[in-house]
Specification:
- The chain is of the alpha/beta class.
- Helix content is 50%, strand content 12%.
- It has helices spanning 8-15, 17-31, 38-50, 55-66, 76-91, 119-132, 147-160, 173-187, 204-220, 239-251, 269-277, 298-306; strands at residues 107-112, 137-140, 164-165, 191-194, 227-233, 255-259, 281-285, 293-295.
- An 8-stranded mixed beta sheet has the order 3-2-4-1-5-6-7-8, sandwiched between helices.
- Helix 11 (269-277) links the parallel strand 6 and strand 7.
- Helix 1 (8-15) crosses helix 12 (298-306) and helix 2 (17-31) runs antiparallel to helix 3 (38-50).
- The radius of gyration is 21 Å and the shape is elongated.
Length: 310
């Protein structure tokens, strides 16, 4: 007998528990039995910066907590509610679904990110989601540097019934992307998901290759890729900010997917990224299962990261 699935909100709260606990504990230590003064507000701001929320957002939240509360004792839960409200304000403008334009067939999604961010797994999960929505999907194993990535994508292809275009390890990834786009057009696929190698954002040659993939695909379809998803690993914290910057310059990132939020106390980095770059956040992941990747909802995330009961 199958066990009932845990609702997404419960999984999200559980996934962000380490972030919420770290923040909540620090907030409680700071404000319990102590009236708010300038020093407390400054310490609160430091706590929020250490939680990777970013300097601008931390200042904004600290100011919101201070407003009308000087020389008063505040409850930790009140601070958490303010935190959740301010985080939601930052995240709401970027919480946008990934829309598959039906007139673009195939709708080409290029998936980029550094090694270990969870790109290939994310592609598999997205393929499963699109399949359940009734879309026909093709996969391109463009991470030709790693045999394991090619094998992993083939397994996802078998699970989701999606054909996989692959070559031997070391093959030209731009040529493979071109071939995959041609095959997807011939078969009338709705979506083509293209994996890419895990390029370190400071490796100019590898970034150049990413540009080549885009250039070559545009020989077949001048509008491709229709979406460029950057997969970010939440556990890397502040380094994720520079990844967004570099990949945006090279590949024209149109949306973000953040994975591994369940493995870190640094979930606040998504807030800093939203405040600085304002790139749409389409999905977040809090586990290995297909159901652990879900569309990003600002209010749910804000409450989970602040540890506010829903």
């Amino acid at each position: 007998m199958n066990e009932p699935k845990t609702p997404w909100l419960a999984r999200l709260s559980a996934g962000l528990r380490r972030t919420a606990s770290a923040l909540g504990g620090a907030i409680s230590d700071l404000v319990t039995k102590r009236p708010l003064d300038a020093a407390t507000i400054e310490e609160l701001e430091d706590v929020l910066i250490r939680a990777d929320l970013g300097v601008a957002v931390a200042g904004r939240i600290a100011a919101a907590v201070a407003e009308g509360r000087y020389d008063k004792t505040v409850e930790p839960d009140e601070v958490k509610r303010i935190l959740a409200g301010e985080v939601e304000k930052v995240l709401s403008p970027v919480a946008k679904p990934l829309e598959i334009a039906p007139q673009e067939k195939p709708f080409v999604i290029l998936v980029v990110g550094v090694n270990g961010s969870g790109k290939t797994t994310t592609i598999g999960k997205l393929a499963a989601k699109f399949f359940h929505e009734g879309k026909s999907v093709m996969l391109a194993a463009g991470d030709t540097f790693r045999a394991a990535a090619i094998d992993q994508l083939k397994i996802w292809g078998e699970r989701t019934g999606a054909p996989v275009i692959a070559r031997d390890p070391g093959a030209d990834s731009a040529g493979l992307a071109y071939e995959a786009l041609g095959a997807a057009r011939e078969r009338g696929a709705d979506v083509l998901l293209v994996d890419t190698a895990g390029r370190l954002q400071n490796k100019a040659a590898l970034m150049g290759e990413l540009e080549k993939i885009v250039r070559v695909m545009r020989k077949l379809d001048p509008t491709a890729p229709h979406a460029v998803l950057l997969v970010l690993d939440a556990t890397v914290g502040q380094n994720a900010l520079s990844q967004v910057e570099e990949f945006s310059k090279t590949a024209g990132v149109t949306g973000l997917v953040m994975t591994k939020l369940d493995g870190t106390a640094r979930g606040g980095i998504l807030v800093a990224i939203a405040a600085k770059h304002r790139i749409p956040v389409h999905f977040i992941g809090v586990g290995e299962g297909v159901e652990d990747l879900a569309p990003f909802a600002a209010a749910d995330f804000a409450r989970a990261v602040a540890g506010v009961e829903t």
